[in-house]
Design brief:
It is a single chain. The protein has 10 helices and 5 strands. The chain is of the alpha/beta class and 190 residues long. A 5-stranded parallel beta sheet has the order 2-3-1-4-5, sandwiched between helices. 33% of the residues are buried. The chain starts with a strand and ends with a helix. Helix 1 (14-25) crosses helix 10, helix 2 (32-41) crosses helix 3 and helix 6 crosses helix 8 (140-154). It is 59% helix and 14% strand. It has helices spanning 14-25, 32-41, 45-54, 62-75, 91-103, 118-132, 135-138, 140-154, 157-162, 176-188, and strands spanning 2-7, 28-31, 81-85, 110-115, 167-171. The protein has one domain: P-loop containing nucleotide triphosphate hydrolases (Rossmann fold, 3-Layer(aba) Sandwich). Bound molecules: adenosine monophosphate. Adenosine monophosphate binds at residues 10, 32-33, 36, 53-54, 57-60, 65, 86-87, 89, 93, 136, 146.
Length: 190
Amino acid sequence: MLNIVLFGPPGAGKGTQSERLIEKYDLIHLSTGDIFRTHLKENTPLGILARTFMDVGKLVPDEVTIEMLKAEVVLHSNAKGFIFDGFPRTNAQAEALDELLQSLSTEISIMLSLEVEEEELKKRLLGRAEVSGRTDDADPVIIERRISIYNKDTAPVKAFYQAQNKLTAIQGTGTIDEITHRLFTAIDAL
Ligand code: AMP
């Protein structure tokens, strides 16, 4: 299996690039943010719980997120591989993902970390709010909180994969095509 962690701060381009990667490599795209938003729209108990965290830019608790992700992976256990987009966001999530994949006799192949500086992220998120209607993208205070939680809780996940020699940093600025090309090159070198 080809299992990719597509990593990076909010606004780094994970969703956009995931679309390209799933098409080329025939992978299942698991975006925890997208899955939460679907639950939110359908007002499921999980959606109602997740909303209280998402609306203010905080992380949904690990236990809840991990259980949801596990269920999605198991649903697609015959897949050629996965792109994990927006997951793992904490070391506990990374450990749980390793265990889950091990139980399926597979593992993470590579972590691709999109690197974009903060001012550019803020600009992108405010621009995205206009088209996506995402309230967490429209409010500068919430954007600030999401970036600071990324720096504190999520960025350390890079060291987790670095210790396994699986981390590849990718410059996340330039045209969408240029960034896609960098990602393809890193994957094809595996
Ligand atoms: P995203 O679409 O990846 O920007 O995620 C939107 C929001 O969903 C985040 O700000 C969190 O509140 C929640 N979320 C998404 N993925 C995770 C995760 N792996 N762990 C905890 N919360 C998450």
